[in-house]
Queue: 2 jobs
Job 1
Amino acid sequence: MLLRRLKLTNFRNLPNAALELDAGLTLFHGANAQGKSNLLEAAYLLAIGRSYRAAAEREMVAWAAREGDGYAVVSGTVERGGEPDELLVGLDLRQGETVQKRVQINGSARRASDLVGRFNAVLFSADDIALVYGAPQGRRRYLDVLLSQADPRYLRALQRYQRVVQQRNRLLKGLKEGRAGEQELLFWDAKLCEEGAQTLAARLAAVGPLSEAARRCYAAFGADGDALEVAYAPTIGVPDAPSEGALADAIREALTASRRQERALAQTMVGPHRDDLRLTMRGVELAQHASRGQARLAALSLRLAEAELLAARRGDQPVLLLDDVLSELDAEHRALTMEAAATYSQTLATTADTRIVPERFRASARRFRVVSGAVFEEEEEGGET
């Protein structure tokens, strides 16, 4: 899979950029706050239909555009198996302060969720250390993005489950305030068990291969015999034979046990939306005991494992997006990271200093300098920042 073309209009600080891209390594470099990361954010928007860093979608619309035309457009051409897909995401503020998102695939209007799986990409960010030190929500999102790109059926099941949780929470609030009846809760209990079992079954099936890949990737960084382990941490008792039926029964039992707490808090307290990934080395929780260096390598290993599983499940390599990943690594681990990336068909990477990219990779890379929202291709190596 290759991203052959990327075009941006009024996207953050990039008023107008049109790039033709090749296989192999492409470097976007320049000083901080010039727009390098915005290019990768735009590419990832085409992959998953949403930003990985914007708190609100209106942030992606250029400031000047908000005061004028009020729209941003990101489009791209993705090549997979020789067949191109034309993808487009428009963000329109012209109808008011609320963003109207418009998605097209090959010229036809579609839902944002329909983008997922069309263009598979794995994003590596300096903020990935939060996969180790951060809240469970970030690790759940990591797993959900992987599984949604691998299989659109998972995304649909997850969306149904999330809607059930929202409905059930509203009902629990109504019960607490005396505005709803017990019989209504029984209906949503059944739906939660059904949809939750599908989501949970897919996650459980993925974590074993994910852990094996992460362990192998971490070992490749030469981590002195420490073995990275990834395990699923559910809020229910998982049966020995976790079929969807058995998982639905287990969720039902957990709901019954947590009923009093749910009534008091008006929140659904068990299910996939409360689960976590447990990251350990030698049985010790990384979040509590890992050094920053260990955490950085563990996060890198999780991303490489994500790419490996996605390639295996889709039969095609994802595009790697490396956003300022090398700056916090030493020379040895920079080289190892780039060696791993070089096994994939296409990598787009940002850096403030191209000299930190190992020379053997830098020499063959296409290079673009980004200055105040303008993108210029460099014909040959030189003029590093």
Note: Residues 173 and 179 are 8 Å apart (CA to CA).
Job 2
Amino acid sequence: MYVHNIDPAAFRIGSVEVHWYGLMYLAGFAIGWLLGRWRASRPDSGWTATEVDDLLTFVMLGVIIGGRLGYVLFYDFAVYLQHPLEILRIWHGGMSFHGGFLGALAAFWYFARTRHKSFLAISDFVAPLVPQAIFWGRIGNFINGELWGKPSELPWAMIFKGGGPIARHPSQLYEALLEGLLLFVALWIYSSKTRDPGRVSGFFALGYGLCRILVEFVRLPDAHIGYLAFGWLTMGQLLCLPLVAIGLWLLLRPVRPAQARKDAGSLPH
């Protein structure tokens, strides 16, 4: 039986600690930047390397700020209201995917307005880069020993220090594999062919939403929130329902040729 006992600090320089959690976020952004540069280099991509650099800088800021504020507002507002400086200590964990998602959408909107590109062209370009970053983020959750699952007798169940002496589902690894690795491969293959505007974004929203809802059945909800309805609905599942609906709409909506040309390219200045 594996007992989780990983030091969350990757290394220390004097009194300064560099945490694995931050390094995982750095890996996700760095790999996303390299993949974005590669996508922009393809013929007729409609993107330049400079545009990729600028966009991903905005997205990085949106994800970090939105992810932290989303966690504060959605999951633990009362505690952070009493200890506001704790909001800045992101190396302690506590990032919301849904908050980061909203932060990224805000970055897309700003970039679309300032660079005269359509919103869907931006989201379709970025969507295939995201799952690998989710993978690294979930590995960071695992290293931190947080967000563990329900008790389990499966051979790969683990004991987490914060979860008592009971073996539990390593739900962080389930999410890393499903929302991260599996969704990355599927979305990368799907986006390798030309699709109508919004289809790639819809594939991501639907795929992430379904994977997250599935894993939430074996992941323990935050103790101070618990289950919201029916004895099983969690905050994570509730926040994923709009994603699933938006994903289905983007995948199934009819797209006229004129609208497709407009959404796929740059807008007039």
Note: Residues 124 and 200 are 5 Å apart (CA to CA).
